[in-house]
Structure formats: structure tokens, C-alpha cells
Amino acid sequence: xxxxxxxxxxxxxxxxxxxxxxxxxxxxxxxxxxxxxxxxxxxxxxxxxxxxxxxxxxxxxxxxxxxxxxxxxxxxxxxxxxxxxxxxxxxxxxxxxxxxxxxxxxxxxxxxxxxxxxxxxxxxxxxxxxxxxxxxxxxxxxxxxxxxxxxxxxxxxxxxxxxxxxxxxxxxxxxxxxxxxxxxxxxxxxxxxxxxxxxxxxxxxxxxxxxxxxxxxxxxxxxxxxxxxxxxxxxxxxxxxxxxxxxxxxxxxxxxxxxxxxxxxxxxxxxxxxxxxxxxxxxxxxxxxxxxxxxxxxxxxxxxxxxxxxxxxxxxxxxxxxxxxxxxxxxxxxxxxxx
Length: 339
Fold this sequence. Notes:
- By secondary structure, the chain is mostly beta strands.
- Helix content is 7%, strand content 42%.
- The radius of gyration is 23 Å and the shape is elongated.
- The termini are far apart.
């Protein structure tokens, strides 16, 4: 059909907006077909004719009205009984745009992307409130993290909110994340300064899948700088308020939240002191006033999936015991002690 997407976006209103380069005008009755991988389930939307001699066309389709379930949906154009998969020249999506999209309270998150083979597809995920991690580092015996509150419905303003970072000790019988030898698909963190563990330095852009994007989330970037990092000392409220409960199963420390940006710092000595036999994994959560649930610290608002194998951070030694950040299979942050 000679149809190529040159710009693809899911708007804040969950409308799929496409700009197409077309060799021939779209005929009346042309249909956009969405086909779900694995099941073959389909949705069809009839498009209007593009007109006489035009070589481009715009398409806008409300996704919420199509009752699409989570998963991957490939896109096709069907015209005069001929169906062809839609090619895409859009190199990827704007990560800043994803941040704006994640400010709303949603149950599903829709994302348009280009596949490895150069076709347009949709990725649909359940959208639950999460503290999206932007930078992680060890400094002066502390674990520090910054990020963005996603899908909470909170305003991106200057309001300070009371918050707590809680680390919960996970099941000691849980298998540690897979750290098999890296292959060509693994992006290994190689920052020469092990005190700074920054996802933007780790090159978190899966080349050939969504393409290179913009990542503005380092520890010294303006987005995180509104709330930190800072250099809390022993007098800092975060460490004065650090506590342990559930027989040492949880460590808590005050966190800073300004609008939807967060920063938290925790003494690694406190983590080690609360870790049985100097072994185990800790799952961090953020508790924020105005949010009705604890928020796991995850990393989903970018173009890299499977961080459990693709992102490797250096470790810190505390009294000879290694402590290392890592990710679960579901791209949620962990602190592994003795791993």
C-alpha cells in the first residue's frame, strides 16, 4: 500500500494519533486493524478517505473505546480486501511525553512504538501507582534514590508532601535475580565512578526496539534537582526518624516529595544491621500522604524492558558485605545484601 508512519503518539486522552506518508490516497472504507499477539483477537476501525492527490494523512483513534486488553497489538491497514502491516519510520517516543502521560490516574497505559523489524505496534500495560526510579547511587555510606510518582493523579506542583521510604525484607528463600554472563542484548553499567549509579549513564535505550530517546533523570538533572540530592548528615530528619519494625523486617526513613518528584536517602549500615545473617533482599516502597497505597520503586517509564538482566550496578561494601541494587523480573528495584 505504500503507507509509512512518520509520527506516532498516544495522547493524554488515550487517542492514537498517527501521521502517515502514503503513496496513494486512502480509499473510502479503509480500516485500521489492531491484532493482539498470541490470541489473534482483533479490533477494526473504519477510517475516512484521505482525499484527491494528498501524499500524507492524519489518523486519530480513541483507544479507550476499543476495549483493548493488556499485551502487544500489531497494526494493519486494510483496503479493498488487502491487508498490510503498517511500517513506521518514527524512531521512538519522547520520554518527556511519557512523564506527562504518567501524571494522570489510569488503569491502563497505552504506548505506541516501532518494533525491531520497523512496524508500528501498541503496548498496553496495567497502570498502577508507582514510584518510578530515575537515579540510584551509593554515597558516603548511604543508598540514595530519586524519581517520579507515576499514575497517582497528584499535581506536578511545588507542594511538599510527607513521605516515608520503607524497605521490606523479602522471602529469604526467594531466588536471586539471574546474573548470567552478559550477551549482546545486555546493557552493562560501566560508570568508572561506582559511587554514582545513574540509569541515564547506564545507557537505558534498547537500540533497534524503540530507538534512542531522551532521558532526563540523572542525579544532577533539573528534574530531580528540585528535591535533591542533598547531603544529609546525622542531624538530618531522615536518619533521626529511621526505624525498624516487624522484628527487623522493615526499615523506614523519611523521604522528600515535592509535587511528583521524590528523593530519599538511607544508611546502608541500617540496612545491614537489620539483615539476618548478612544475606537477603530488600524491596523499597514509598509511602506518600494523599496516595492510598504504598508505591513500589519501579523503572517502567523508559524504553528498556527486562532490566533484571540488562542493567547491572556495581556494589558497595559495608563491613565486608556487598550490597547491590538490582531489579526484579517485573522491573522493580531491589537492594541485595550479601549477593
